[in-house]
Design goal:
By secondary structure, this protein is of the alpha+beta class. The protein is about 35% helix and about 15% strand. The protein folds into 2 domains: about 5-70, Alpha-Beta Plaits; about 85-255, NADH Oxidase (3-Layer(aba) Sandwich). The chain is elongated. The structure holds flavin mononucleotide.
């Protein structure tokens, strides 16, 4: 049950909580009377905590978070554009990994950091599965190759499957171009409730990728694996996601074996100013 309480003695009637609420479910203060949640607020509240976070005096508390639980906002630690750009440009798809899998505590922290990603309706419904057993990882890659073999049998001359031939042949000769012998694979999945979940999951994985850099980890999107897992029954069965859950994406993760020395160029974006 949602509940918003406003401490009259701390409230300065600035009205910030009312202004910031995405669904305008807090009535603005009138005269000397503090703001107050509208009767239908619990139907609309998305538990974003903006009302709690905007209040300079800690006067407002939500049943899902009190001001004491929310750390002060430290704007001084925001990186400048040059530092930020450097981090974004330093991120690379890593495909050569050291064998050791990152510690579970490290993964827990990175997943927690990825949890600060925005999500549609603030649902925060992304679920994580992390594989760090080499036999399982090899089995996953092998099943993805089985799917590719199946596709090649069905459509032997399809030009878009040309790469599959190379990947399957490489795998059969001991070279894994699907999961690149990564020591861990991170999978995101969820139920579809509003339709925005695949986007939420992709944003969470992108956050994961960036947050992982702070621990010296490197990641690589496993798009090929994801395609296989969505289409190939045995692979789906092995993942054994909860009923009604959909796989949205996967990412290899581990400590990079090699260090890039330069920042590769990328296309200049095209922008149409309207
Ligand atoms: C949705 C998505 C799927 C991808 N799938 C794969 C993949 O299956 N295997 C792989 O080696 N790289 C994959 N990549 C990595 C891209 O090849 C890589 O991002 C691109 O070449 C740019 O390199 P960079 O990430 O180092 O900037 C994928 C990237 C994205 C965003």
């Amino acid at each position: 049950m949602t509940g918003i309480t406003i401490n009259d003695s701390l409230c300065t009637r600035d009205g910030f909580c009312s202004i910031i609420c995405p669904f305008q479910i807090i009535s603005p203060p009138k005269g000397g009377i503090p703001p107050k949640p509208k009767p239908e607020f619990s139907k609309w509240c998305i538990h974003c905590g903006h009302c709690v976070a905007i209040c300079p005096t800690g006067a407002i508390s939500h049943s899902c978070m009190s001001p004491d639980q929310c750390p002060p906002a430290d704007y001084k630690s925001i990186l400048g554009p040059d530092q930020f750009e450097n981090i974004l440009r330093l991120r690379r798809s890593v495909r050569r990994f050291k064998q050791e899998a990152p510690d579970k505590e490290v993964f827990k922290r990175i997943v927690t950091m990825a949890g600060y990603a925005p999500s549609g309706h603030n649902l925060q419904a992304v679920n994580w599965q992390i594989f760090d057993n080499l036999d399982d990882l090899n089995h996953l890659a092998s099943m993805a190759c089985d799917w590719m073999k199946h596709m090649l049998k069905e459509m032997p001359d399809a030009p878009h499957l040309l790469a599959f031939k190379k990947i399957v042949a490489a795998f059969d000769s001991g070279l894994d171009l699907v999961l690149h012998n990564a020591p861990s694979l991170v999978i995101v999945h969820s139920k579809i409730q509003t339709g925005v979940e695949p986007t939420d999951a992709a944003i969470s994985l992108a956050y994961f990728d960036l947050a992982a850099m702070s621990f010296g980890l490197g990641c690589c999107w496993a798009g090929l694996f994801t395609m296989a897992a969505k289409s190939w029954g045995p692979l789906g069965e092995f993942l054994n996601l909860p009923k009604d859950h959909h796989l949205h994406g996967a990412m290899m993760a581990g400590y990079p074996k090699l260090k890039f020395q330069r920042l590769p160029l990328r296309k200049q974006p095209t922008i149409q100013w309207r």
